[in-house]
Amino acid sequence: MIRGIAAFLLTVCFVSGVNAPTYAVDNTSIIEPYYTGAINASCTLSISSGKATCKGYLTLRSGYTASLTLKLQQSKNGSSWTTLKTWTATGRIISKSYYVSSEYKYRATFNIKVYNSEGTLVDNFTKISETKP
Fold first, then answer.
1. What is the DSSP secondary structure assignment for residue 2, as one 8-state letter?
2. Contact, 45 vs 57, CB < 8 A?
3. Measuring CA to CA, which residue among 56, 40, 42, 46 is closest to residue 94?
4. Rounded Cα–Cα distance for residues 72 and 54 (Å)
5. Contact 72, 95 (CB under 8 A)
6. What is the predicted pLDDT for the residue at 81?
7. pLDDT number for residue 101
8. Dihedral, CA atoms, 95, 101, 104, 108, nearest 10 degrees?
9. pLDDT in tens, 72-120
10. What angle do CA 128, 75, 69 make, to 5 degrees?
11. Where are the beta strands (DSSP E) in 17-92?
12. What angle is formed at CA 55 by the lines to CA 124 and CA 60, rounded to 5 degrees?
């Protein structure tokens, strides 16, 4: 009896065209490009009491080195950017501060160049922080 009811319900579902709901998932915001020597990187900017602190973080695979360039940029309109300060370092982390005016928008850019053990450039990319008023 139970098998008959189950078979009947299945038949009704197929005949009536009942479909299971489907959902679209947007994963584009979490997809990162693949790099040879870098695992991941991030760039942040915080502003407190007129002091802008720019930070760049890099995680490298074993056997790779990196040169880092961190820039603090300003803009009146948010589309055209002027570089205020540029700092360079080697390694995995760079953190610098600079006093700024409240009449501009600011962002930090973090350029990473990764080299293999023979000194060949294998990755070259830039991360940009969120714009701060």
1. H
2. no
3. 56
4. 7
5. no
6. 97
7. 93
8. 0
9. 999 999 899 999 999 999 999 999 999 999 999 999 999 999 999 999 9
10. 35
11. 38-48, 51-60, 65-75, 82-90
12. 45
As a whole-number percent, the residues of the chain with pLDDT over 70 amount to 76
Query: What number of helices (H) and strands (E) belong to the chain?
Result: 1, 7
Single pTM value for the model: 0.74
pLDDT (mean) for 20-40: 65
Q: Write b or e for each residue in 1-31: b if 16 or more Cβ atoms lie within 10 A of its Cβ, otherwise e.
A: eeeeeeeeeeeeeeeeeeeeeeeeeeeeeee
CA angle (121 as vertex; 84, 53 as ends), nearest 5: 25
Tokens of 55: 């930070």
Given its phi and psi angles, is residue 16 left (phi above 0), alpha (psi -120 to 50 degrees) or beta?
Answer: alpha
* Tokens found for residue 94: 């760079």
CA distance 1 to 35: 60
